[in-house]
Amino acid sequence: MGAYFPYLWQLLCIGVMLLLCVGLAGPLTWAERRQSAMIQDRVGPNRAGLSLFGKNYTAFGLLHPLADAIKMITKEDTINARADRFLYNIAPFVALLPALVTFAVIPFGPDVVIDGQRYGMQVARIDAGIVYIFAVSSLAVFGVTLAGYASASKLAMLGGLRASAQMISYEVTMGLSIMGLVLIWGTLEPNAMVVEQGHHFGGWLPAWGIFVQPLSFIIFLTAAIAENKRVPFDLAEGESEIVGYFVEYSGMKFGMFFMAEYIEVIVIAGLTTTLFFGGWQVPYLMDAHAHGALTEAGFVFPWGTVWQIGDLAATVIRFGAFVFKLLFFCWFQLMIRWTLPRFRYDQVMVLGWRRLLPLSLVNLVVTAAVVLALQ
Question: Which terminal CB of the chain, N or C, has fewer other CB atoms within 10 Å?
Answer without folding.
Answer: C
